[in-house]
Amino acid sequence: MVSTAGNDLHNVDLSRESAAAGGSPRLYGYLAKPEGKGPFPAVLMVHEAFGLNDITVRHAERMAAAGYLTLALDLFSDGGARRCLVSTMRSLAAGEGRAFTDLLTARQWLLDSGDSTDKVGVIGFCMGGGFALLLANDGFDAAAVNYGRLPKNPETELAGACPIVANFGARDRSLRGAATQLSTVLEALGTEHDVKEFETAGHAFLNDAEIGPRPLRPLFRVLGVGPDPQSAPEAWRRIEDHFARHLKG
After folding, report:
1. How many Å apart are CA 86 and CA 80, to the nearest integer?
2. For labeling, which of 4, 40, 72, 106 is most exposed (least CB within 10 Å)?
3. What local confidence, expressed as pLDDT, does residue 1 receive?
4. Please, where are the H alpha helices in 147-231?
5. Is 95 helix (H, G, I), strand (E, B) or coil?
């Protein structure tokens, strides 16, 4: 059901479907649709820890422009970031819980929408990258992981994963060694993958604007968090090439 949920970033209401599946009583998202006549391959987008914001919407519109019916789900729909962030992070750490129910509900919504083919990928950023990684072996056809934290036991939790493309930043102090570890694990599992660490990039380098509360942004810059126009174009090309190969091919 497409509707206005009282927020410019929400144009889809999945509350009925989510509640029926045992997920969040309120669940909204932002749907970006390609031009022209479908059906289109679909992409489920998972936002950063700061929530579904203008940056996420622009990411979704970018994927739609590339030909994908893209749903950016708001994992904080049922109370906002202050009430939902901790429980969402706990769900991510446990690899189960309401957040995963909501995400799989959103995937089914895309498949049932009438505008999608039977191909669906998942893409995530920061916190969302961690979710995308864990969802890679749960019925998706391709995954794009951007500076997402690896699960505690990647050798078992990533077994059977779909093809994965992953982008990390060498200046990301929070994920040092993650790119090498992920590549090693996926190689051992025999999972098709393309993992790259960008030398000049830090965390959140695919964003086109700074994130977080304004007083904290100087600190984020010191920590290497924020846009990297030098690396972002190649990272986006890698994502689009990966999805084209596995969702459009």
Report:
1. 11
2. 4
3. 37
4. 154-157, 178-189, 217-222
5. coil
Query: What residue type is 168 in one-letter code?
Result: F
Measure the CA–CA gap between 90 and 237, rounded to whole angstroms: 32
* Strand pairing category for 28-32 and 12-13: antiparallel
Q: Terminus-to-terminus CA distance in the chain, angstroms?
A: 29
User: Residue 123 and residue 193: Cα distance in Å, rounded?
Assistant: 14
**CB atoms < 10 A from the CB of 200, how many?**
13
pTM: 0.94
pLDDT digits (tens, 9 = 90+) for 47-63: 999 999 999 999 999 99
| Alpha carbon 204 to its chain's center | 12
User: What distance in Å separates the CA atoms of residue 187 and residue 76, rounded to the nearest whole number?
Assistant: 34
CA distance 17 to 245: 31
Classify domain 12-248 by CATH architecture: 3-Layer(aba) Sandwich (3.40)
Helix (H) or strand (E) holding 63: helix 54-65
Residues ≥6 apart with Cβ < 8 Å to 184: none
How far is residue 23's CA from residue 175's CA, in Å, rounded to a whole number?
Answer: 30
Q: Which residue has the tokens 């045992």?
A: 22
Give bridge partners of residue 125 from the DSSP assignment. Answer: 146
* Domain ranges (residues) in the chain: 12-248
Q: Give the model's pLDDT for residue 216.
A: 74
| Token pair belonging to 117 | 């083919």
Helix, strand, coil in percent for the chain, rounding step 5: 40, 20, 40
- Amino acid, res. 33: K
